[in-house]
Specification:
The protein is of the alpha+beta class and about 130 residues long. It contains three helices and six strands, in the order E-E-H-E-E-E-E-H-H. The model has no long low-confidence stretch (mean pLDDT about 85). It comes from Fictibacillus phosphorivorans.
């Protein structure tokens, strides 16, 4: 995980406005939320794992299942995860276990972020600041 300093940290806005702006920029909101907090994610890489720019937020007025909820942004950060190549070390065989245990253990769930993504993420954060704060 690599924090990215931003002027949107601690800024507030309506969830529906943030969602409209950020989805238009390529961020996803999908399943990355609970009733009191969530994340907007921008996928930067998914070659042997994934690298996301993630912007956390929390509800300060209402719950996230309501579009008129006011949210407050946290500090954006880069998140990297490297997939395991090959067979899972903890694989189990059989019809029942195979039905439930289809995915490998991650090789590195908190992988080091490749330097090339840091500059790209900083530029994307600047664009996000402009889009949300102006």
């Amino acid at each position: 995980m690599k924090p990215i300093k931003s002027s949107i940290e601690k800024e507030c806005c309506a969830l529906n406005e943030a969602e409209e702006v950020l989805k238009g920029m390529g961020f996803s909101y999908g399943g990355n939320w609970d009733y009191d907090h969530g994340y907007f994610d921008y996928k930067l890489d998914d070659e042997v794992g994934y690298t996301f720019l993630r912007i956390p937020f929390q509800a300060i007025d209402g719950q996230l299942d309501k579009k008129d909820t006011t949210i407050q942004f946290g500090e954006p950060f880069l998140l990297a995860h490297k997939y395991q190549v090959g067979l899972d070390d903890n694989a189990e065989t059989g019809n029942i276990s195979g039905s439930f245990n289809q995915f490998s253990e991650p090789q590195d769930p908190d992988a080091t972020v490749d330097q090339k993504w840091i500059g790209i993420a900083k530029e994307l954060v600047k664009k996000t600041e402009t889009a949300l704060l102006n």
